[in-house]
Amino acid sequence: MWPIAFLILLLSFNTVAGRGRSPSSRSTSEEPRRSFAECTAKCYKDYQKWTNKLEEAKNCIASCRSGHN
């Protein structure tokens, strides 16, 4: 059940970002998206080690969104 919760949390952050929906998002470079994808992949790898999985995953993804990966 935990990996499903992680994916739902990740999708909720992507929805909030609204990527791909506005014309301005299409004109941006792929580099920030790749960086976000790599950051969230690292979050998912670390996910199995965390004790408070949901809270730590939320914080990790939030730090990816803010660019502090």
Task: Please describe the structure with a list of short key phrases separated by commas or semicolons.
globular
Brief rundown of the structure:
Helix content is 75%, strand content 0%. It is mostly helical and 69 residues long. Helix 1 (2-17) runs parallel beside helix 4 (53-66) and helix 3 (30-47) packs antiparallel against helix 4.
Commentary on this structure:
Residues 1-18 form the signal peptide. Keywords: Signal. With 69 residues, the protein is mainly α. It has one domain. The protein has four helices and no strands. It has helices at 2-17, 23-26, 30-47, 53-66. Helix 1 packs parallel to helix 4 (53-66). It is globular, with a radius of gyration of 13 Å.
- What is the string of SSEs from the N terminus onward? HHHH
Determine the N-to-C terminus distance: 26 Å
Q: What number of domains?
A: 1
Which class best fits the helix and strand makeup?
A: mainly alpha
Topology (elements, then pairings):
Elements: H1 2-17, H2 23-26, H3 30-47, H4 53-66
